[in-house]
Amino acid sequence: MKIISLFYTLLLSLIPLPAQTIVTNLDDEDDGLTSLASPADISLREAINHSVPNTTITFDSSLDGETITLTEGELVIEKNLTIDASSLPNGLTIDGGGNGDFVNDSATNNETRCFFIYDRLPFPDTFQTITLNNLTIQNGSYEGANAGANIYNRENLSLINCQILNGRAFGGNGDADGGGIYHRDGTLTITDCTITGNQIQGNRAALEVGFTTPLASSLLLAAPSPRTRFMAVS
Ligand SMILES: [Ca+2]
Ligand SMILES: [Ca+2]
Ligand SMILES: [Ca+2]
């Protein structure tokens, strides 16, 4: 019996547990590589930057319905990662600080794109798997081409029960793309999301992924060459 018990204990020890990091504050800060050793002071930026690949990032229940306003620039995701606020009844908001115009006010209000999702690996590219769940991502702002004011994506991204709101892409000699999402490579899977109020400047065809109502089912967008583009409907 002891041998069997020992066997199972050994077996369990060989099965890697899924990594998990819990965000515990609303600050936009990064205290460095050892920051995750301070479980009472873990920001979303620290969780993204320093968690090992394949981590699921969740949120302390005290953050239910709260907002993280970005002050340190876009959040960069370049590895397999899940950001899951599904345990929060009222979700969690990530705000890029944009003020709704087509002017770069980053010097005065820190406005920024919200998520830059790309590992920058050389060709041939491989695709990381990223899932964002129960997040509101709003007020992103980006000046330039290939924008994606709320989300720039070149990996395999799944959005579940998210709201992508009020992004503003502008400039880029009139070549700004994606007030909400700029999806270039990989796949973009959208399930039960609302993507609305996002705008680009100028008279070029609007290039955001645009939906005004929650989708009834999943939409899988396999990125063709060279790009996937959608007309804005809002
Ligand atoms: Ca910290
Ligand atoms: Ca602005
Ligand atoms: Ca990649």
Task: Summarize the topology.
Blueprint: H1 2-14, E1 20-23, H2 44-50, E2 55-59, E3 67-69, E4 75-77, E5 81-84, E6 92-95, H3 106-109, E7 115-117, E8 129-133, E9 135-138, E10 141-143, E11 151-153, E12 156-160, E13 163-165, E14 168-170, E15 181-183, E16 187-191, E17 194-196, E18 199-200, E19 219-222
Parallel strand pairs: 1-2, 2-5, 3-6, 4-7, 5-8, 6-9, 7-11, 8-12, 9-13, 10-14, 11-15, 12-16, 13-17, 14-18
Antiparallel strand pairs: 16-19
Report on the structure:
The protein has one domain. It is 10% helix and 29% strand. The protein is built from three helices and 19 strands. The C terminus is likely disordered. By secondary structure, it is mainly β. Helix 2 links the parallel strand 1 and strand 2. It is globular. Strands 1-2-5-8-12-16-19 form a seven-stranded mixed sheet, covered by helices on one side. A five-stranded parallel sheet has the order 3-6-9-13-17, with no helix packed on it. A four-stranded parallel sheet has the order 4-7-11-15. The site of one calcium ion (CA) has 7 residues, from loops. The site of one calcium ion has 7 residues, from loops.
